[in-house]
Model the fold of this input.
Amino acid sequence: MKKCILCEEMRELWKEQQLLAEFGKGMRFIHLPDTKDTIPFMLQSTIHSDPFTAIVDGNATPYFRVERINEYSCIAKLSLLQPVDLKGLPAITHRDLYTLIKTSHCIIVKLCIFSAITPLPHELVDRPLPVIVSKT
Done:
């Protein structure tokens, strides 16, 4: 059986995401108000090397969070992250992306059918939208 490199990479991402989620918890004297629990990523399809997308609330998203991974079958449960622009609207292109909002929508995927994973900065997740004050 062929070894699935992407499965190993996803397992490492999941471990780091768990460490990130636990960082700062249980500390008595240090308070970290903005701890993150998600490492967002994109998956690249083996067909035409296009980003893999799924539909959330009627919009396509190529952004995911790993929820669970079965190391033996290389099947992962991914939650969909909704891309949002500066105005709080769905981001249509990656250039419009300002923040990624967690959703409760999940998909199950076989990791070995993908060719690459692109991790993104965890600061993108649930980043507050800027307050725009009208000067009129």
Q: What stands out?
A: The first helix runs from residue 5 to 22.
